[in-house]
Amino acid sequence: MPFVTTRDGVEIFFKDWGPKDGRPITLHHGWPLSSDDWDAQMLFFAERGFRVIAHGRRGHGRSVQVPHGHDMDHYAADAFAVVEALDLRNVVHIGHSTGGGEVARAVARHGEPSGRTAKAVLVSAVPPSMLRTEGIPEGLPIEVFDGFRAALAANRAQFFLDVSSGPFYGFNREGATVHQGVIRNWWRQGMEGSALAQPPRQ
Question: What's the domain of life for this entry (predicted)?
């Protein structure tokens, strides 16, 4: 399987689909998922001549599970390690949720200074801090994060099933069409990752 080794020795798994001379698009996944969450989009873009790359963050998917580096600085550096290893240029970065925060940090710290980034697309991206403070009154109260951490510690499998069956896709809304395959795929990706990497960080 294809891996890139980061400067601090972490092996990052990635997928690289489509023609190697195509315009590169890199996809950055949300919490607590993996590169597998982008398969439909990867097929779509690869069939249209783009080179599409999706990596799993450290501790997620098939990337190595390590107890350290679960913060945006490391995530951004890891993503850029893939870009450098593949010598990608004129890259379009697309990130969802936590992946959006990763994109913002990666482009600002690495992509733009190196001249390798063309565009960044943030899809429901997390802000730099989600915690409610005096300076961020619209943030979430600490009790929300404490509740997530407690639920993960008590029964991670059930928590991931509850999240994917309900609020993540809006399946808890009246009249929603529920797709069991989507729920199971989300659950599978969450459980594949490391419990050390997944507690929400505010």
Answer: Bacteria
Q: Is 189 left (phi over 0), alpha (psi -120 to 50) or beta?
A: alpha
Measure CA 136 to chain center. Answer: 24
**Can you tell me whether residue 35 is helix, strand or coil?**
helix
Q: Quickly list DSSP for 39-91.
A: HHHHHHHHTTT-EEEEEPPTTSTTS---SS--SHHHHHHHHHHHHHHTT--SE
Return the biggest CA–CA distance within the chain: 49
Q: Determine if the pTM surpasses 0.85.
A: yes
42: closest CA among 27, 23, 61, 30? 27
Which tokens hold the place of 132?
């409610």
Dihedrals phi, psi of 57, to nearest 5 degrees:
-60, 160
List the beta bridge partners of residue 92.
25, 119
Q: Which of 98, 97, 96 is nearest to 71 (CA)?
A: 98
**125-137, pLDDT tens digit by residue?**
988 778 899 988 9
Task: Tell me the C-alpha distance between 145 and 150, whole Å.
Answer: 9
163 three-class SS: helix
> Which domains occur in the chain, in start order?
3-123 (3.40.50.1820), 142-192 (no CATH)
